[in-house]
Amino acid sequence: MTQDRPYSQTLARLREAGLRPTRQRLALGRLLFDGGDRHVTAEALHDEAQTVGVSVSLATVYNTLHQFTEAGLLREVVLDSARTYFDTNTSDHHHFFIENSGALMDIDGDRIAISGLPEAPEGTNVARVDVIVRLQGAARHSG
Fold first, then answer.
1. Quick one: what percent of the chain has pLDDT higher than 90?
2. Around 102, how many Cα atoms within 13 Å sit in the side-chain half-sphere?
3. How far apart are CA 110 and CA 27, in angstroms?
4. From residue 121, how far is each of 46, 89, 117, 126 by CA, in Å?
5. DSSP state, 90?
6. Strand partners, 78
7. What is the CA radius of gyration of the chain?
8. Residue 122 to residues 118, 125, 126, 130, 137: CA-CA distances in angstroms?
9. Helix (H) or strand (E) holding 80
10. Phi-psi bin for 64: left (phi > 0), alpha (psi -120 to 50), beta?
11. What is the pLDDT, as a whole number, of residue 7?
12. Which end of the chain is more exposed for a tag (fewer CB within 10 A), N or C?
């Protein structure tokens, strides 16, 4: 990333995904993608945006996260009806969820073997299998 074009990587990513690079998408995209893979909630991203001076509503953050997910830039990880994370790592992988802290950590996709899946109902196919291993106790958070 160059000094004179701080949004160039985010701009390219949005254009490749077919999304118009609005001010909000660029700002939120930069927060999400400039720093390695991470897991965020809409509320945490909204707080982070406010902290760095990006004026954006929580509703806009939610809308943008869902637009990024639909465009394939993010992966939605639903833990329960009240807790959803957005993952910048869209590769085939699974997650550890540390219940005490709310931390989510990646598990490489090849570390878990899935077998014995029932056949999908007629007219459907399996899009993805998500495994969430729920942990209790302390563990270091890695993103």
1. 77
2. 9
3. 34
4. 39, 29, 12, 9
5. -
6. 84
7. 17
8. 12, 8, 11, 21, 42
9. strand 75-80
10. alpha
11. 74
12. N
pLDDT mean across residues, the chain = 90
Tell me how far CA of residue 27 lies from CA of 85, 91, 118, 127, in angstroms. 19, 23, 43, 30
pLDDT digits (tens, 9 = 90+) for 100-139: 998 999 999 899 999 999 999 999 999 889 999 999 987 6
**Antiparallel, parallel or unpaired: β 83-87 and 132-135:** unpaired
Q: Which residues, at least 6 apart from 64, have a Cβ–Cβ distance to it below 8 Å?
A: 24, 25, 28
Predicted local confidence at residue 2, as pLDDT? 42
Q: What was the pLDDT predicted at 137? A: 81
CA angle (100 as vertex; 86, 57 as ends), nearest 5: 35
Write down the residue that tokens 């890695």 correspond to.
Answer: 142
